[in-house]
Amino acid sequence: MLAELTHRCPLACPYCSNPLELESAKTELSTAEWIDIFRQASAMGVLHLHLSGGEPASRRDLVDLTAGAAAAGLYTNLITSGIGLTEARITALADAGLDHLQLSIQGATPVLADRVGGYKGGYQRKIAVAEWTHAAGIPLTVNAVCHKQNMDELGDMLDLAVTLGARRIEIATVQFHGWADKNREALMPTREQFLKTNAFVEDSRKRLEGIIVIDYVGADHHATYPKACMGGWGRTGLNVTPSGRVLPCHAAETIPSLVFDNARDRPLADIWYNGSAFNAYRGDSWMPDLCRTCERKEIDFGGCRCQAMALAGDAAATDPVCVRSPLRALLIEQAEADSRAAPPPFVYRGR
Ligand code: SF4
Ligand code: FES
Questions:
Q1: Cystine design at 33: which of 29, 59, 226, 313 (Cβ 3.0–4.6 Å)?
Q2: Strand-by-strand arrangement of the 100-105 sheet
Q3: pLDDT digits (tens, 9 = 90+) for 256-310
Q4: How far is the CA of 300 from the centre of ligand 1 (A)?
Q5: Nearest-ligand number for the alpha carbon of 180
Q6: Parallel, antiparallel, or unpaired: how do β-strands 48-52 and 2-4 relate?
């Protein structure tokens, strides 16, 4: 379960996948409401909780929330930019039972990282947060979202992750959901960058075996088949927004036909098993013939519903990333044109 504790965030990353309209602080769930949801999640079989945002450290009750989640028996992972964390707060999080921390880095140098994050001084803060995390004995993953403007620095970002004591790095190519779609020309990697990054990851995995694990998500439009987004709709994951709306994926609100329940009004397990949004794309009855008769339908589950919505205007269409999709040519054509464009200035939220 991904708990978006808040949409507040001091950074302004141009690839933010949160919705265009953020939820305001006054609608956020209280400490007690979140902890009740964590208990319900644990009771219905959730094992792994991501405490995310926005920036989760913007919640003053982050330590209490972590303690509540740990007491409910959940494995807790904090996904953070690091801004808002102090050494004392990290020690308190460790004492509260935090199991793991994922720290985002936007570049390997302060100039690029702070420009991408839209936050001056962010880079230095992250270095300090990584050191405090390491000192507190919390396992660390570095998240590196890669795109046109930082892909050529990936070697330095990987070296930085090793230096910071990270056990794992997630190198994920930007996904064009939410705000990111406003920055397509500034972020879309070229085919050459994609191929170079593939080779770099393959080589680095061998070179750094036993030192750091590298997870890699390549650019969608260069793939042959789509990824099993969310591990399949309503199969293994759910997302709770700051105000308690329960979504099958973080971008599900881009599908206008869906109606979402709120954990303030309905038990979590009832939403998971019986909610209309969760049942909309479970199984294969919703699939177009192309997917329903395909030997890969239990591998990728027809791909990403939100991508189908964005490109085909129909969330039940075959994901246009798929080589068999009639819309693939359109996806590639758009992506290629964006990738070749000279990068315009970033469009930041609220500026
Ligand atoms: Fe996946 Fe559908 Fe493409 Fe088959 S046709 S590979 S199920 S997206
Ligand atoms: Fe929503 Fe892929 S992002 S299903």
A1: 29
A2: 213-217, 168-173, 140-146, 100-105, 75-80, 48-52, 2-4, 239-240, 246-247
A3: 999 999 999 999 999 999 999 999 999 999 999 999 999 999 999 999 999 999 8
A4: 7
A5: 2
A6: parallel
Question: Could you tell me which of 13, 123, 10, 132 has the C-alpha nearest to residue 59?
Answer: 10
User: Which ligand is nearest the CA of 233, by number?
Assistant: 2
302 lines ligand 1 (CB under 6 A): yes
Question: What mean pLDDT do residues 306-317 have?
Answer: 92
Residue with tokens 């987004």: 229
Q: How far is the C-alpha of 9 from the C-alpha of 81, rounded, in Å?
A: 9
User: How much is the pTM?
Assistant: 0.94
Say whether 152 sits in a helix, a strand or coil.
helix
Cα angle for residues 21, 26, 29 (degrees, 5° grid): 95
Note the pLDDT tens digit of each residue in 174-210: 988 888 889 999 999 999 999 999 999 999 999 999 9
User: How confident is the model over 9-31, as pLDDT tens digits?
Assistant: 888 888 888 888 888 999 999 99
**Position 45 pLDDT exceeds 90:** yes
Choose one of 322, 327, 328, 331 to mutate for the ligand 1 pocket test, by most ligand atoms within 8 angstroms of C-beta: 322
3-state secondary structure of 47: coil
Q: Name 76's bridge partners.
A: 49
Above 70 in pLDDT, residue 170? yes
